[in-house]
Task: inverse folding
């Protein structure tokens, strides 16, 4: 059974960098594409970006200038960095298996990140 | 406003059939890109319900079905049950990014 678990700070100050890691169990990072998706409180879903272990990356154009994703096959996890955050970046951040051209399955349980001073 | 348009809410009585529409355009659904559907309960992550327009992952009841025609797609739920009350999202691809519908809240009366 494939499981994903997000981890990282739950509170980030405005203008600072949000950093999250998604640890994968039951599957190998090297085999698939992996993605980040967020959901602002009470709102819908927004795709952030997708990455493969071979280095193929795709980002949401609206976030591209602030987003970086990476993989670490030795730890079987992948990561998200979002710079210069504002209150608008407050959301539940999900990691999921899948690429920008496919479906997402499974998803991590999600982690609420709040941007506040 | 989402690139994919869904009704904010739908409702139905137990045992009934409901459909949830997902309206796109010629740059996403109409361009031939697949549509996927998710079910989300409060406080939980979305769960894949339908992939590739009309395919059910293992474990999803056959009461759930998907279809696609032109620039739109639909999710149908037959034999409605109280446990189906959730928010449903459609997803597709458009102009180099992945897009979701705004979500539809299904209420079982």
Result:
């Amino acid at each position: 059974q494939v499981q994903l678990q997000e981890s990282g700070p739950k509170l980030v100050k405005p203008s600072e960098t949000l950093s999250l890691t998604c640890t994968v169990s039951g599957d190998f990072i090297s085999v698939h594409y992996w993605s980040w998706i967020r959901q602002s409180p009470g709102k819908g879903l927004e795709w952030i970006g997708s990455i493969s272990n071979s280095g193929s990356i795709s980002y949401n154009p609206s976030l591209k200038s602030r987003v970086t994703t990476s993989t670490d096959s030795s730890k079987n996890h992948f990561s998200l960095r979002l710079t210069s955050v504002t209150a608008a970046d407050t959301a539940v951040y999900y990691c999921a298996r899948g690429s920008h051209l496919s479906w997402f399955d499974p998803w991590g349980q999600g982690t609420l990140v709040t941007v506040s001073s | 406003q989402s690139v994919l348009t869904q009704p904010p809410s739908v409702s139905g009585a137990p045992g009934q059939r409901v459909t949830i529409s997902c309206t796109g355009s010629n740059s996403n659904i109409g361009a031939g890109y697949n549509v996927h559907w998710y079910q989300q309960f409060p406080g939980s992550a979305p769960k894949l319900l339908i992939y590739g327009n009309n395919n059910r992952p293992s474990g999803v009841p056959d009461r759930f079905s998907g279809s696609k025609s032109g620039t739109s797609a639909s999710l149908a739920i037959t034999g409605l049950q109280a446990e189906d009350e959730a928010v449903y999202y459609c997803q597709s691809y458009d102009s180099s990014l992945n897009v979701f519908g705004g979500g539809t809240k299904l209420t079982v009366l």
Summary: The two ends of chain B are 28 Å apart (CA to CA). The mean pLDDT of chain B is 96. The first strand of chain B starts at residue 9 and ends at 12. Chain B touches chain A through 23 residues (CB under 8 Å).
